[in-house]
Amino acid sequence: MKQKFNVITSTCIPLPMENVDTDQIIPARFLKATTREEKFFGDNLFRDWRYNADGTLNNDFVLNNPKYSGCILVAGKNFGSGSSREHAAWAIAGYGFRVVISSFFADIHKNNELNNFVLPVVVSEAFLAELFASIDADAKTEVEVDLPNQTVTNKATGRSEHFDINAYKKHCLMNGLDDIDFLVENKQKTEQWEQANK
Question: A Gene Ontology CC term for this entry (predicted)?
Fold first, then answer.
């Protein structure tokens, strides 16, 4: 979903598991879908963890715990490893997450998130551990993600960290542009350059 991104303050959903791969984010059987409907992929995010084999809710999984809510997912180290399926980013966005915070992302998955208007925020392992501790102590803990200033702040402790982002992707997120939108926005400049460089 194309949404302009500025500053987001939200409670968080904690997933303190390392090496969460794209098959766990969206199982391979859903890759045959002929739709890119956000609800479809969002409904099947972490499908095999959210539901038992008989289709009933797994009440032990964090997304099914009513005390946790928000548009920020706080995940363990090495999030999005495995296959390069963009469907994993579709599922994260379709569920309603705007931000994923981790100490490390698989490169392809990180770019897929950016292309789907989800901001992957890389923090230090110490800061990530502090976030998990704050959320565990109080599920209403809020985190502020400030894209213009590239900072993430744990509102429970007041501690902040700076995060890196590609300048082009930052511009696109802040202006609600995908790659095609960006090219259309700059069509006149491109045409002027072409005329000047014939």
Answer: 3-isopropylmalate dehydratase complex
